[in-house]
Structure formats: C-alpha cells, structure tokens
Amino acid sequence: MTDTNESGRSFKRRDQLLEMEQEVRKWWDECHVFNAEANDQPPKEGDKFFGSFPFPYMNGYLHLGHAFSLSKLEFAAAYHRLRGANVLLPFGFHCTGMPIKASADKLRREIERFGNPPSFPSETEETITEPEVKTEGSQPDKFKGKKSKAASKTGRETYQWEIMRGYGLSDTEIATFQDPVQWLRFFPPLAVEDLN
Fold it and tell me: Which domain of life, per UniProt (predicted)?
C-alpha cells in the first residue's frame, strides 16, 4: 500500500490522524468519558456542569453551522470534565414540527406537478431595458439594462427534489421522503455517526 495517490499527494499525515482518532474514540468508549457520572467519586459542591444546545431539525444533514455552535459547548464541557466536574451535556434531535412535514409535503407537490422523477421547467428570465434617456454629457452608444422591479423579485424556485439530489440520493430514494417518517428513519442515524 502506498501513501500517495495518482497525483502524487501524500495522505500519510491524514492516515495517522485517522488512526489516532480511532484509538482515542475506543478509549473514550471504554472509559465512558462522555457519561455524566464518568468519575469514580461524586462531585463536590459546585463541581457540576450542565450545557444545552438547540436540537437540530432532522430535515437534512448536520452542517458546519451545527459543528461551529456545538464545538464551543463541547469545548466547555471537556474543560469542566477534565477539572473533575460531573458534566451533563444532553443531545438529541428535533424530530417534530413543521420543517420535516413541510419538506415532505413540498416533495409530494413537486411529484404531483412535475412527475416522478420530476422534470422541472427551465428558467428563462428576460432582462428589460429602459429606453435610452439622453442627458448632457452622456454617451449616445451606451445604455443601461435594468430588470424591472417584478423581474428582480422573482427568483428561481428551489425545488426540494434538487436539494435531496444534492445529498447524493437517487430519484427512487427521494420519492420515499414524501412520508415524513422517512426523514426520521434516514437522517438521525447519519447525524449520530457525524457526531461520533
């Protein structure tokens, strides 16, 4: 096995870091490092830390914004844990509410309107030019093209199907997401994997 790919880039450092990560994760699991009462001794008065984080909706993958926000809390929890505090940092997923239902309904409407798999209309946007107004000092061969106010406000609709394709899902898989429960079967296990 070589440490380089066809372009000659070395992945030795990356592979070493991944190997270290696996060893540390194994140690964390064996020592129950992330359990609230991981210490052998009960915490002293004031040696407790509780942190919370807005649970992410499960209508898509976790993204960098989640990692940014959670990393600050995780850093604080690790700091207190290293000081011997009893740390409680519950984490869950928001699996109720309108974002999931709205996304499922949007997919259903797209299928009803554009077929399965959908054939979306192509975007054609006209640029409306205003008539040339000559003013003193203006150049007669120059004109400014401007979109009308209505054309500026209308943008291309973002289709839920295209968002799901962006996740790398096949058209067959995407069609199953008309059922809101499918979102809850699919995204939470991937989020757990990402968080681990």
Answer: Eukaryota
